[in-house]
Every structure is written in C-alpha cells, then in structure tokens.
Amino acid sequence: MSLSSMTIRAACIEDAEEILAIYAPYILETAITFEYDVPSIEEFRQRIADTLEKYPYIVAEDETGKIRGYAYVGEFHAREAYRYSVETSIYIEKDRRRSGLGRLLYDALEEELAKRGIQNLYACIAAPAAEDDPYLTNDSIRFHEHLGYELIGRFHSCGYKFNSWYDMVWMEKMIGEHDF
Predict the structure, then answer these.
(1) pLDDT (tens digit, 9 = 90+) per residue, 141-160?
(2) pLDDT at residue 1 greater than cutoff 70
(3) Do 110 and 165 contact (CB within 8 A), yes or no?
(4) Of 10, 53, 72, 156, which has fewest CB within 10 angstroms of its CB?
(5) Is 78 buried (19+), middle (13-18) or exposed (0-12) by CB count in 10 A?
(6) How far is 39 from 45, CA to CA, in rounded Å?
(7) What's the burial of 36, exposed, middle or buried (CB within 10 Å: 0-12/13-18/19+)?
(8) Distance from C-alpha of 176 to C-alpha of 180, rounded to nearest angstrom
C-alpha cells in the first residue's frame, strides 16, 4: 500500500459495512474501544448519518476502492460554548497501523475542521494499567503525541473490559488561534 495511491474522501452511509469491518476487531479483540458488542449495520449507518449532519467523517480508500481506515469527530460537549471543540476518533485496519495512514487521515481531518472554525481537538484514549496488557498498548497515546497532542488528564480505572480495569487519558491539540 502506497500512501500516494490513497484517496481521502467523505464517508457516506453506503460505506458502513466496510467501516464496521475495520471497527469490529477493535471491539472484539482490544480495549481500545469500550464497546462490548459489535453494533448492527443499521445502528452503524445511523451513527455515520448522525455524525455527517454536523461534522466530517472521512475514509481512506486504496487504489482498488477498498476502505483502509477512517476518522471522524463528535461533539465535545453539548452546550453552545463548546461549539469550537470536538472529540476525534480514528481507526485503521489493524495490519496497516504504523504505515502513515493515520497521519494522512488526521491531517485531512484537521484541514477540514480548521475550515469549519474548530479550535480545539480532544482525544479520549484508553490506557493500559500494565505494559504487558494483552488487549491494549500505549500506541494510541504515542501516535497522538507524535501529531502534536498533549496529555491533559487521566481518569483512573474508569473502564472495565476483558475482566480488567482501564484508565482513560484526555489529550488536546489546539488548531486555532483563539483570536475572536
């Protein structure tokens, strides 16, 4: 897979099956997401539709038209004062991690968010209690640090999955000037 052959485009409802196929292993095999059950295709289509009403949801497609990763944002908090802040999410096919695809997606996402006047990006990331955890590593934290996110908080033992407690960390990246 060459990054130069990847196309970044807006997701659509018809992409739900391919996107869910990327997401499902994260639910079933990791503590990266705290969902326990794979959502139905109907529920997943609705999630995409709901996001697209207000925010970007993008996919990375290879030269064959197959989706290899996706990224989107959601509301940081519902109150109007938070309208310039969003929470980011990204998922890449597991065998394509560390290929540069994540950066490609996040760069495109940030560009679109800046056009929309978004100022602050937040990532809520599961963190393992031990380095040898079979379901979770610190890779996502390191990935976000590499992209300029800073650690701003940690919630201890707040998520429970696979008979283990997991921490959550909040990371932040400012992409706006905050000059208004």
Answers:
(1) 999 999 999 999 999 999 99
(2) no
(3) no
(4) 53
(5) exposed
(6) 10
(7) exposed
(8) 10
User: Is 157 in a helix, a strand, or coil?
Assistant: strand
Average pLDDT across the chain, whole number: 95
Tokens of 89: 């999410």
* Angle at the Cα of 85 from the Cα atoms of 82 and 89, rounded to 5 degrees: 130
Per DSSP bridges, beta strands 150-161 and 164-174 are: antiparallel
> Residue 17 gets which letter from DSSP?
H
pLDDT tens digits, one per residue of 51-78: 999 999 999 999 999 999 999 999 999 9
The distance in angstroms from the start CA to the end CA of the chain is 42
Give CA separation, 90 vs 3, 23, 69, in Å.
Answer: 17, 10, 8
Q: Can you tell me the distance from the alpha carbon of 1 to that of 157, in angstroms, rounded to the nearest whole number? A: 38
